[in-house]
Every structure is written in C-alpha cells, then in structure tokens.
Amino acid sequence: MNIEKAVKKLQEVLNLDRSSTKLMPMNETEITISKQQILLAVKTILNSKIWHLSAITCQQIEDGFTLLYHFWKSGGLTLRIRLDENKPQIESICSLIPGAEYYEREAREMFGIEFHGMPNPIPLLLPDNWQGGYPMRKKELPSNEEHNSKTSQKKGKSL
Predict the structure, then answer these.
(1) What's the whole-number average pLDDT of the chain?
(2) CATH number of the domain enclosing 147
(3) How many domains is the chain partitioned into structurally?
(4) Cα 153 to Cα 106, 141, 147, 149, distances in angstroms
C-alpha cells in the first residue's frame, strides 16, 4: 500500500477530517492526531505495510511538546502529536515496534516525556547519576530560575 492509501485509511479509522492532514515538500505527509490515537494509528500504518519507523523526534513549543513519529516507504508519513507541558505523557509503541524503544528513551531523558508501558526506561544517553534536569528543555526548572534571579539581583543585572 502506498502513502496516499495509508493516509486515507488513517483518516477513516481515526475519524479524521482533511484539515488534520498536511502535504509537505519532498514527498512527505503529516497527520495531526491526539495522543489517545497513537496505538491505533501505528497499528493502521503497520497494517498498511509501512514498517519503517525512521525516528521519533520531540520539539518543545510555547505551552507543551510536539512528538513527531516519522515513517517511510517510498515517501514519508509523519504523525504529529501535541503533549501538555505539565503532563507530557503518551503510550509507548514498543509493543508494536520494539525498535522504538531507543527513540522513546531519548525523548524521555532529554525532554521528560513519559511513555507508559516502555519496557526498559533506564537511561540511554545520560549518566545514571545525572541530576541536571532535562537538557533539551528550553525552560529552566523553577529552582534554577530562582537561583539565577537571586544571583543576577546580587550583581545588579535584571533578566
């Protein structure tokens, strides 16, 4: 099955309207779904004979995070999912695609995304004794902001 047919099947199975689908340059299609739809969406993609998960990437946005699940078979198919900043949680897809574990572990370590059902949540990139928070988050943790504010006030600088 090609990407166009897989997109139509996803729209049908997930009951999505056409506004959730965006054609991108370079033979790429992006579909926005809710986090509750991730397992059904991935099952549908796999049943469409699109087996290659290229990556799971994460972006921090103004009030949360965006997870992008990148699939490929003679064209790209990306699932876009928005997660809340205060509760960045989603179901793990490792039960469907075991190789997704490394991508999920990276997003967990770097951004603090919790993947429910992840089989092996031990650190992947950071040392076991890491105490520095989530290194890829744009916003500092409140304790660091308070510390920086107090330090800059002592030096006479404003942030």
Answers:
(1) 87
(2) 3.30.460.80
(3) 1
(4) 36, 19, 10, 6
